[in-house]
Amino acid sequence: VSCNSTPSTDTATETGLSEADSLSYLKKGKGIAASSFAVLSGALQKAMQEGGVSNAIDYCHLSAFPLIDSLSQIHQAEIKRTTLKVRNPKDRPNEVEAAVLKKYDQQAAKGEQLKPFVTLADGQRVAFYAPIMMNDLCLKCHGKIGETLAEEDYIHIQKRYPEDEAVGYVAGDFRGMWSIQFDR
Ligand code: HEC
User: Could you tell me if the CB of 156 is within 6 A of ligand 1?
Assistant: First the structure.
């Protein structure tokens, strides 16, 4: 019987949160992710305007973590970006995150729409996850080498990140996710 039973669609049983709580935490998580994205991409675009792609690579190398740390302080949350193909090894996923990333990856491969969701982490804190997708701007540093990503810029990336895996993407690709935790 259990082999045939369909998985429960009841949010409360799956996540440990009531539907009303899920909705309000989802809203909070989306707000943090959106404002973090705005801060990071604003800083990135400014650095690109001021000194081109290589300047922006240096800027991200120095400032991505400090920026995310200060956003974590502002929002009283633990904010992280993570992916299955890392540029900065410090962004590697933990076990739980790797499982979420793989699920998103499979959904993306099937052409499904990837959705943010919340769940309880260690029974106490709220864990929020949201997919990060690639757009044309991103390809200047994460695209196909010699095509959307200039070879000289890739050489510059490799100097900073000798183990870089985060290239070869096209617009619309699933790139990674926000993993954000905050208190209930
Ligand atoms: C100017 C080059 C540049 C552009 C443009 C760029 N990135 Fe990145 N990206 C980087 C660098 C450099 C890092 C590593 C930052 C660090 O050291 O913390 C990075 C890291 C990331 C990470 C964290 C995971 C990892 O692999 O370390 C994600 C997610 C990401 N980029 C997504 C994007 C998205 C989405 C866009 C477009 C909106 C984008 N990037 C545009 C250079 C770029």
Answer: no
Q: Are 77 and 182 in contact (CB under 8 A)?
A: yes
* Dihedral sign computed on CA atoms, order 101, 38, 126, 19: negative
CB 116 within 8 A of CB 102: no
Ligand 1 touching residue 33 (CB < 6 A) = no
Question: Taking a C-beta distance cutoff of 8 angstroms, is the pair 174, 108 a contact?
Answer: yes
- pLDDT value at position 3? 54
Return the number of other C-beta atoms located less than 10 Å from residue 104's C-beta. 21
Q: What is the per-residue pLDDT across 124-137, written as a single tens digit (0 to 9) for each?
A: 899 999 999 999 99
CA 141 – ligand 1 centroid, Å:
7
